[in-house]
Design a protein that fits this description.
The protein has 116 residues and is mostly helical. 61% of the residues lie in helices and 10% in strands. It contains 6 helices and 2 strands. It has a two-stranded antiparallel ribbon with strand order 1-2. Helix 1 runs antiparallel to helix 6 and helix 4 crosses helix 5. The protein is elongated and about 60 Å long.
Length: 116
Amino acid sequence: MDVYMEAKEVAHKIKECQKVLTAIGDESRQHLLVEMMQMDDCRGVRVGEITKRTNLSRPAVSHHLQILKDAGLIKVRKEGTKNYYYFDSDMKSMKKLIGALQAAVDVASHLPDRDN
């Protein structure tokens, strides 16, 4: 396959990862992810627990968690009226992004040098 066709395929793959890129591109969501990683309970954390560790309001934390959930980075488990947020163990959306980025690196390495 020609390198320019491969580049178009990579562009399509990256476009399919737009939700993940948007989700992890925000500084507040990055902070939430880091805080969740540093918490001791891998079974899930509640919005209030995350709110205590950030400078964000409870509604803001809920909003950001919903974006991360929609992007496939985290999941939610309901126990009665309580919601517990945790990392998606299969990480499909993150693996898809990594694959798209690796494909971009591979294609770029075959493109002609344009510095000259």
